[in-house]
Amino acid sequence: MDKLLDEYLRYLAVEKGLSPNTLEAYSRVLRDFTTFLEEAGASSYREVDQDHCFLYLISLRKAGKAPASQEQALAAIRGFFRFALAEGYLPQDPTVNLEGPKKGFALPRVLSVEQVERLLAMPKVSTPFGLRDRAMLELLYATGLRVGELVELKLEDLELAHNYLRTIGKGRKERIVPVGEDAVYWLATYLREGRGKLAKSAAVPQVFLNRYGKPLSRQYVWRLVERYAAEAKLPDWVSPHVLRHSFATHLLIGGADLRSVQAMLGHADIATTQIYTHLSRGHLKNVYDKYHPRA
After folding, report:
1. How big is the CA angle at 88 (ends 86 and 92), to the nearest 5 degrees?
2. Is 267 one of the annotated active-site residues of the chain?
3. Has 292 been annotated as catalytic?
4. Of 63, 65, 84, 103, which has the maximum CB count within 10 A?
């Protein structure tokens, strides 16, 4: 079972070009699923039927997993069995007629412009670390970059004279993202006055470095954002991804078209971007209710 699973993960990495983070998520789900099957007495994927898959989803629900997590698990399992069937390892796909849990419609959380400004003002820019953190927060909000894209950002990816940067997103796809004047200012200031004091070697190309001159980790960036959010007395759900949500929502509220926001976020499917239109419509409704005399 492990051998077939490893072959599938290699297929996702080489043929599909999935990112390391996505591969890790698929691997985690499928190995957990395999452990569940072994505990249920299955010694081969050929013995798996729809009931096994259904009972695994039930176990996720009982464990308190959100409907979205259950859907993601089912998607990973479906993809694996489709691969195994196509490659001739299995006579049938046990997930063909299996339906996942119905997801409730949940809007992503976003900050107001005033809350974002409070967050961005938190780092003490008198130190190299404060300059780094201010530039990092400004860039997250100005571009909507994912955390993985931020920590992998290299000096050669920056075109600050022309207010844009290059990044490699999901599926190893490159995209060009505009960068606003405020973010350009703080990024240029960090590069001029802060990064050189953190860098231990010119061989490290990443923009954002830790005290040892190494690239920041994704976990470290999450902790930094959470710490500054707490200092700014913002809700405890603030994270780097909330800045991404806020970036997209504020653009749409300001009048940006959906296709442009999709391109900046790096969404393969515009349906993923459309969730932000519900947020912007909600904002407009609140404005209407507050200011229209006959609301």
Report:
1. 75
2. yes
3. no
4. 84
How many distinct structural domains can be found in the chain? 2
Q: Does the residue 100 lie in any domain?
A: no
Q: Which of 175, 214, 241, 278 is catalytic?
A: 241
Strands (E), the chain: 158-159, 164-168, 174-178
Looking at the structure, tell me whether residues 209 and 248 fall in a common domain.
yes
Q: Which of 52, 195, 244, 245 is catalytic?
A: 244
Catalytic residue among 8, 45, 56, 276: 276
Do the bridges between strand 174-178 and strand 158-159 make them parallel or antiparallel, or are there none, so unpaired? unpaired
Which range of residues forms the domain containing residue 214?
113-290
Over residues 211-266, the pLDDT tens digits come to 999 999 988 999 999 999 999 999 988 999 999 999 999 998 888 888 999 999 98
Give, in degrees to the nearest 5, the angle at Cα 98 between 92 and 102: 160
Amino acid code (one letter) for 72 = Q
Task: Decide if 146 is catalytic.
Answer: yes
Active site residue 166: no
> Looking at the structure, do residues 121 and 62 belong to the same domain, yes or no?
no
Statement to judge: residues 41 and 182 lie in one domain: no
d(CA 195, CA 189): 9
Q: What is the pTM of this model?
A: 0.65
210 with 286, same domain? yes
Of 118, 214, 267, 278, the active-site residue reads 267
